[in-house]
Specification:
- With 131 residues, the protein is mainly α.
- The protein contains six helices and no strands.
- It has a domain of 64 residues.
- The radius of gyration is 29 Å and the shape is flat.
């Protein structure tokens, strides 16, 4: 009886020690300087324009715009004359283009996972029965 009580108290003490005293160290560092509003807006605009230009490098987008009769010089000229709202809207639309994929990659990933599960089950000498 005393041995069981001693073991359970030991487990309780170790658990309390790990829960209370075993913490991660505090991280310290310098805080970056804040930009003025005007600088921040120009940097956001430049970032969004860069995102749009990356999307325009995509072959599908280039083919589609050339089908509409637009050349790359005309596109760059139109982008520089857009206001901030139009740039932001186009940058959001370009995010989905840069994400890319039509679901084929996800389907291949699911297929690979299913095949790995079947392989593991077979290696464990288990039978797969589909009814």
């Amino acid at each position: 009886m005393l041995k069981n009580f001693r073991n359970s108290m030991l487990v309780l003490c170790i658990t309390a020690y790990l829960a209370v005293f075993w913490t991660s160290p505090a991280m310290a560092g310098l805080i970056g300087s804040r930009l003025s509003n005007e600088t921040r807006f120009t940097q956001e605009r430049q970032f969004e324009i860069h995102k749009i230009q990356r999307a325009l490098e995509n072959q599908v987008v280039t083919d589609k715009l050339s089908a509409y009769g637009l050349k790359s010089d005309e596109i760059k000229d139109k982008i520089t004359h857009m206001n901030d709202d139009q740039i932001h809207l186009l940058a959001q639309a370009s995010d989905s283009v840069l994400a890319g994929g039509d679901g084929v990659g996800a389907a291949i990933g699911v297929l690979i996972i299913v095949l790995l599960v079947i392989l593991i089950i077979k290696l464990l000498n288990k039978d797969i029965i589909i009814r």
